[in-house]
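Before relying on records like the one below, remember that each one covers exactly one chain. Contacts with other chains, cofactors or solvent are not represented anywhere in the record.
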Amino acid sequence: MAKKQAHKISKQEGNLFDKIFKEVSEKVFLTLVEQRLGLKIKEFRPLKEKMQTTIEREMDFFYEIIPEEGEKFILHLEFETKDPLDMIYRVGEYHGMGLRRMKLPIRHVVIYLGTKTPKMRTQLKPEEVFTGFELVNVHVFNPIELLSSQVPDVVLLAVLANYPPEQAESILRLIVQRLKTLSQNEAELTRYFNQLITFSRLRKIENLTIKITEEMPITYNIETDYLYEQGLEKGLETGIQKGIEKGRSETDYQNKFNFVLNLLKNTDFSNEKIAFLAGVDSQFVEKVVADLNKKSN
């Protein structure tokens, strides 16, 4: 009970301080800020103090300032009767939220009203300062380099890389072959297939991906996929499986042939590396080379 009463009194005192500060800030503290920041305020207007994002923070005072000289900026005032050692990080949060909302430069001022010498930090360390971020654009990646990786998670990214739409089937078949080679067991391969289908939706080739993964000697449970509910019929697939087996083999051969042909024309990879990427033997590559030379002659 004593703790609750003390908390209630502390909250009441805080509200009283806020009320007093609001009454005197525009007359007293803005003048103080002018002197400390070395500027003359031509106009100002209070802004909404609560920043609603994934977290909520309430600033003491938040102003839009138009100085007599220079560009418009935001002035943020905080009043502290205590000496919070994490104040620098709180102000950092305010800065990020305020900048996102207002898109103007922000100057922060903490006005300390305590009696002891404050120990709070006023500057971030150089390594703590946010200056930007690195942008990684997966769409400019070379799919062949990704397919060469020994890490299945990296191989998966090839579906999001840079290749012409007409090569989508060849790329997907190469991804599936590599995942089969790199996976340790059936459960792991199934998991990678599920991830591949999810990624392929970003390129709008999920139907093709499901078709190709179903040709592998493991079962992808299509009934758990929303595409099944949109009209894919499990019974139809089972009924015609034997009838299209031969056609699939011919399609696989042609896809591999085209993929090897593209690698021969557009890369300087050795025959051995091309055979590895395409999942074929060296004789297959040599046959494509011979065919290519025959057509050239």
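Residues 219-248 have pLDDT under 50 and may be disordered.
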